Structure formats: C-alpha cells, structure tokens
C-alpha cells in the first residue's frame, strides 16, 4: 500500500499546476481534465474549487499577479514615470514566463484584493504629482493595456522566448511583400527585437501622458 501523503488539493495548488501545464499545452490545450490528470485526481474534484475554466483562469491570473508584485517591489522614491516603467516592465516579464500568459491575464478578474495595495500606492503617487484621480487612472490603465496588447502580439509570434512560430521568417516575409517595399522593411520593426521595441513604445506612452496632461 502506498502510504505517501499528497499535498491537500486547494485553489493555489490547482492554479500552480495549471500554470506549469500551460507552458506545455498552451491555453487551447489547457482543460480541467488535463489539470486533474496532472494532479492525479478525478476531474470532478476540481469543481469543488472552480466552477468552470474561466474561474480557474481568474485564479491563474491572480497567482501570476502575486508572483509579479513579489518580484517587483515598489520604490517610494519613484517618479510617476519611473513607476510606469517599473510596473509595466514587471508585468511584461511575468507574462512572458508563461505560454499564452497575456491571454490568460487579459479579461480575467482578480479573485482577491491583493492588487488594491499596489493600485492605491500608484494612484497616491500620481495624484501627489498633480494628476486628478481620473487622469491617474487613465494614465496607468493606458500603459497597462499597451503592455498587455504588446505581449499578446509578441507571444503570437514567440509563444515562449526564443520559440518562434512557423510563418514568421523575415526573409520569407520580405519576398512575399516585395510589391510593398515599405511594408516589407517595416517587418523588422514589428516582428523582431521585442525588448527594444517594447521599451520604445512604453516611452511613447509616457511621453503622450506628459503631453496630454502637462505633467512632466
């Protein structure tokens, strides 16, 4: 008889297992049945914790957020520009750890209120710098949506860093787009060097916030 005791099945254990499995099968291949098999339990056992796949995705996104804030501590000496850079760099790094990480995060709702602490601190920093609350919310959400959208497209080309999908060879794309020379050349600005291009785009967002609200 196997007397080894298993760790208790709870929401965190299921979410952790789901995030590990996500890198292997992607979001389309992730199912409660597949997660149950990985945990060596019957699928109905998971329904005690999650009523459906979206409820599980919500918990996965929440766990990703917990890991992100643990790895990106806030600096009370940040300017609002530095806070946007720090927060969105941390978000991108977290999303890239997981295949389809941006898709999991997008549209999911947090299952707790842990995000309230960082959100409150960010809004306090922005309003102290001269933003109205509405402006602070718009600036932070715009930068967040830029990062989320950017990583969604990035992972559409490279599901995991260095793992490039078939069909995104730049030489082949240039040949196919030969009748559109500017568009052909622009491919390198869209589908390569993601780190540099992310930073440039984020700088554009910050410059836009400065110009729109007149707060430098």
Describe the SSE topology.
Blueprint: H1 11-29, H2 32-39, H3 53-71, H4 80-96, H5 101-105, H6 115-128, H7 133-157, H8 170-176, H9 181-191, H10 194-213
Helix pairs in contact: 1-2, 1-3, 3-4, 4-7, 4-10, 6-7, 7-10, 8-9
Describe this structure in words.
The chain has helices spanning 11-29, 32-39, 53-71, 80-96, 101-105, 115-128, 133-157, 170-176, 181-191, 194-213. It is mostly helical and 216 residues long. It is 67% helix and 0% strand. It contains 10 helices and no strands. The longest helix is centred in the C-terminal third of the chain and has 25 residues, at 133-157. The chain is flat and about 55 Å long.
Rounded mean pLDDT is 91
Biggest sheet, open or closed, and with what strands and sense?
Answer: none
Fraction of residues in helix: 55-70%
Instruction: Briefly note the structural class of the backbone.
Output: mainly alpha
**Secondary structure tally, helices:** 10
Which descriptor suits the 3D outline? Answer: flat
Question: Which properties best describe this structure?
Answer:
single chain, 216 residues, 0% strand, disordered N terminus
């Amino acid at each position: 008889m196997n007397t080894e005791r298993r760790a208790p099945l709870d929401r965190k254990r299921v979410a952790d297992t789901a995030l590990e499995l996500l890198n292997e099968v992607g979001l389309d291949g992730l199912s409660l049945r597949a997660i149950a098999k990985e945990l060596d339990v019957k699928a109905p056992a998971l329904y005690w914790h999650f009523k459906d796949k979206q409820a599980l995705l919500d918990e996965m996104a929440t766990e990703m957020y917990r890991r992100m804030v643990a790895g990106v501590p806030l600096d009370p000496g940040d300017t609002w520009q530095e806070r946007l850079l720090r927060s969105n760099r941390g978000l991108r790094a977290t999303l890239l750890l997981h295949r389809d990480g941006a898709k999991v995060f997008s549209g999911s709702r947090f299952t707790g209120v842990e995000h309230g602490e960082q959100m409150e601190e960010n809004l306090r920093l922005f309003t102290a710098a001269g933003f109205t609350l509405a402006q602070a919310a718009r600036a932070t959400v715009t930068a967040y949506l830029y990062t989320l959208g950017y990583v969604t497209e990035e992972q559409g080309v490279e599901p995991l860093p260095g793992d490039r999908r078939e069909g995104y060879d730049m030489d082949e794309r240039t040949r196919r787009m030969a009748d559109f020379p500017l568009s052909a050349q622009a491919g390198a600005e869209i589908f390569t060097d993601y780190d540099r291009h992310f930073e440039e785009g984020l700088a554009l967002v910050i410059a836009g916030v400065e110009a729109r609200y007149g707060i430098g």
